[in-house]
Automatic annotation (TrEMBL):
Organism of derivation: Spirosoma telluris
PROSITE patterns xrefs: PROKAR_LIPOPROTEIN
Membrane topology qualifier: Multi-pass membrane protein
Name of a matching Pfam family: MacB_PCD
Swiss-Prot/TrEMBL keywords: Cell membrane, Membrane, Transmembrane, Transmembrane helix
InterPro entries, per database record: ABC3_permease_C, MacB_PCD, Macrolide_Exporter_MacB
Residue ranges of domain MacB-like periplasmic core in the record: 20-240, 436-637
UniProt name for this protein: ABC transporter permease
Amino acid sequence: MLTNYAKIAIRSLLKNKFYSSINVFGLTLGMACALLVGLWVKDELSYDRFLPGVENIYNVRVNYAFNGGPVETAMYTPGPLKEAISRDVPGIAAITKLNDSGPILVKAINSSSTEKSAKEQGEYASSDFFDVFELPALYGNPKVALGQLNQIIISRRLAEKYFPNEVALGKTLQLDNQKNYTVGAVLENLPSNSTLQFDWLTNFKNYEEPWMNEWGTNSVLIYARLKSGITVAQTEAILKGIFPRYAKFNNQEAPILHPMADMHLYSEYKNGKVVGGQIEYVRIFSIVALFILLIACINFMNLATARSSVRAKEVGVRKVVGAGRSSLIGQFLSESILTSLLAIVLALSFVSAILPTFNTLFEKQLTLDLTNPILWFIITGLVLITGFLSGSYPALFLSALQPIKTLKGSGPSSRLQFGAGPALFRRTLVVFQFSLSIFLIVGMLVVGKQMNYLRTKNLGLDRENIVYIPLEGALAQPQKMEPYRRAVLRNPSVASATLANRLPIDVRSNSTDLNWPGKDPKRLVSVSAMSVGSDFIRTMNIKLLGGRDFRTGSLADSSNYLINETAAKLMGLKDPVGKEITFRRGKGQVVGLMKDFHLNSLHQAITPLVVVYYPENTNFLLVKTQAGKAQQAIADLEQVSKQFNPTYPFTYHFMDEAFEKLYKAEQQISTLVNYFGMLAILISCLGLFALAAFTAEQRTKEIGVRKVLGASVASIVTLLSTDFLRLVLIALALASPLAWWAVNKWLSTFAYQTELTWWIFGLAGILAIAIAFLTVSYQSIKAALMNPVTSLRSE
């Protein structure tokens, strides 16, 4: 029976090559999209699942009631919090703190490798790190090694890179041209789906500074492993007493536990509660992929029901010779499943071909592992679900036809009339298809408009022609920072230069140390903080509303401050210049009031900012180049850097690049939305094209009669196109409210956003109508130009 079904299905597909090709190609695109998104979603959901006991590991964060406003959640916490939790919370099995060093120079001292130095990503962690994270070791004892201040733990990648064909244990690596470490253990490489990403690890005390042990400064990441049977609620109840006991703040600060397994997907907090994060994009694109697959299935159903009159006599004959309804349903479902099988083979080839490009674009390492039984389970399920979904309605509809009606009439012009039901069903499916397409077109336009808004919005400071150089190696020595800056300024290609501990477009450091006369001692406030050197205002072209910039080399300014408008409002100071405040460097005066500028991405509102003149505590040299002389400036900067830092590789970046990185996730989402939108439109147009072709074929004689009676080509094209365009207009009316709700919700994740105007929906409608008209008009014009003699010959 199954063999017979397969033979009939193959004959049917070969007999109707045009419509079969449309179906197979549409399903191929839909399945390829579903597979690709499925691989991406699987990778997103797998983050940190490789860690043993990950369900008991938590990232410790702190909820603060800042500025009398909503609760804010900080991922970085005060350094002393780790020791306080270890003492006071009995449900903690192990706890550790760490700090990301960023890429720094690693040099092999006794290696046969030709590549002896490069910048590598590492971490400084407290000695109990491996009590929390049970990472597999290839060689050595990582717990013992981390307890030693002169030892370093490295990944397999670093071991093979710096000590090829050698045993890495006992070898020496130098960090940042300063201190030598002995390799005490080698770990297996961390997978790409790990939140923790490092290639070397050494004791936190090698990095620790006195200010990191202050309760008012958030400087470390803390991870804890709970004891078996201890709940989060029990632990958080005890954690509430930590800050009042040690920090002497009010009782509105509370450490909370964020599951390690949820860190990648759930990263956004609002008023102290998790509200989402990357999981939103996982949900959105899972739904979009299913929609695209559904659009492809709709094409199949539309064409099958449209062509039902062609196959009606076949059904009648089969019923007359004894075929039951179940056998007919089996036959039609076998055709749709065979089509799905052909589509999945092409889809696998398509995904395999584009996966490298996808991985590069989205910085993933996805693979199509055909040896994985789970993948075959997914493929089988995809084929069966798609086959049954696309073939169900046609099978049920055609198998229910009465043989007397289907065989009635034998003339070539006889037409089987099914009534309004199937036609209404087809129209509904077309409306649904284009509703989804219009929804995605609106998404494409809004996301593109917001990305353009992000790129062009005035941040309140310059980011063009700004080059920043990390202060590494000898340049990190406080006594060399200002001489280095002055040497850079001697080059004609350089307009100005300043020192800063953070990039002014990505200020993450915050402090609760701000005080001013009249402040309620029980009131807890948090402000962003920056340490800078001379010429900060001029280099970044920040507008001063009052006062002045810091003076070069001024000892008096070392205890003075610059603040922004938001900080002035926080303190209730209408004319803050000259007023006394207390911050990180003690009591001092506000010497300048800066106009607000954006300190972070536009997801976040502008926060209060206090800028300290502290050039010795900076990490970057920010250089404004003369217009049109960027390349010359880079060459000059390299020459000066080699003089001051001869043993360290010269590294530079453009501020524009750092700004783009703030919106990397949004840029990837924009790319996906564009691709998905175009894919949905293409599949919808394929179905519309085939449906228009079949409609024109069915109305060939009607068109011939109209032409004989004097109808023009334009009137016939209008006749054939109007019905389809009316459906697109209905789709526009249905899709617009849903699209408005969805894009408005996405835009609400930005503190600053583009305006959602009516013309976006108008443009989406015009594009949809234009695309539909171009798709349908080809078949309409072709039918209108046909010689009526040919179509009426048999009458």
